[in-house]
Write a structure and sequence with these properties.
alpha/beta, three-stranded mixed sheet, 29% helix, 202 residues, 7 helices
């Protein structure tokens, strides 16, 4: 895949699942505390994009084997308030990444087709060989994958292709809010409310 960031950062990784619509993540995707990360106080410019993925509040992935049922995966996603599970060769984080299954797959490949999740294996509905990033990648690269690929979740792997964590759109949003709290949080309750008050007082 040709990257919008070629020549500046790391080389792109293999491609994966097809783009889809911006659907909801059960309303609770990836909530809760993330991995420890250092504070960022960078200027509002492109230098922020070069920060490593380790600054994002992503959590360790929920891992399954391809033979597990879709029902078990959905229950784990609901229990952990997550929108994604990853599939490895032996169902543990110590083996190579094989696939990914998200809330989008639940909507488009399971319920959207009237299939019974209790009788489906993850191997039948997961996205095989998902596009991934290595731990040393920058924030620019995860934005690149999400923007060009239409992904809501991007797995991150180590040198042996084992899943380390999964980055969601929400993780990136939380990072940007923490990096620029004044620009994001110090706004009126409604858009244009400050301008309305100025007009009335004129």
């Amino acid at each position: 895949m040709t990257s919008a960031l070629d020549g500046e950062l790391d080389p792109p990784a293999p491609e994966h699942d097809e783009p889809g619509p911006d659907d909801e993540d059960f309303g609770t995707d990836d909530e809760g505390p993330g991995r420890p990360r250092r504070a960022i106080h960078a200027p509002f410019d492109k230098r922020l994009l070069r920060e490593p993925l380790s600054v994002l509040p992503a959590r360790k992935p929920i891992v399954f084997s391809a033979d597990c049922s879709v029902t078990d995966a959905i229950r784990a996603m609901q229990r952990e308030h997550r929108g994604v599970v990853v599939i490895t060769e032996d169902g543990t984080p110590q083996s190579a990444l094989r696939g990914i299954f998200t809330e989008r797959d639940v909507l488009l490949r399971v319920t959207g087709r009237g299939r019974n999740p209790a009788t489906l294996r993850l191997s039948e509905v997961m996205t095989e060989n998902p596009e991934r990033l290595i731990e040393e990648s920058s924030i620019a690269w995860v934005l690149n994958k999400m923007s060009l690929g239409g992904f809501r979740h991007v797995p991150v792997v180590d040198a042996l292709d084992r899943p380390v964590f999964v980055i969601s759109v929400r993780d990136v949003v939380e990072f940007l809010v923490e990096a620029f709290p004044r620009e994001v949080l110090n706004l009126p309750l409604e858009y244009g409310a400050d301008r309305q008050r100025n007009r009335e007082g004129a």
